[in-house]
Amino acid sequence: MLLAYFLFGFFAGAITSGIAFLSITIRSGQAFPAFMKFLAEFVTIIGVFAVLRAKKQPMLERKWKTLSMFSGIALRVIVMDVANVLLLPIFTPYYSTPEAVILIVPFISLFNIIQGAVSVFGGFLLYEAVVLRLPSLKPQ
Which residues are within 8 A (CB) of 19 and not within 5 positions of it... i.e. 6 or more apart? Predict the structure, then answer.
């Protein structure tokens, strides 16, 4: 999803997130886990997009990439922690209260840090590899 964003823009990243939502929903028959995956990936794209879009001062490209990576991961962790506290008690039988979810928030955060890092770093690495071999795909 991040590769689609890097190569083709924000709209492409949003569309691929939506396609993942539909695919997971159709495969599993459950919309809630699919929505949570969509939300996590889409928010990661927003975090990366916000930093890369806001860069106005001349700064080394690597610093902007690094800042955007951390921004995407941080936004993902924050939004998913809040979403889990608010939505898990409603949509799952295992956690009947927000307080029960709050007890596992550190594990949820760790999972989202790891998954966010895989998504962001993997997306950047694949983007760099593709653009190295097909420079015409690099956005201007």
Answer: none
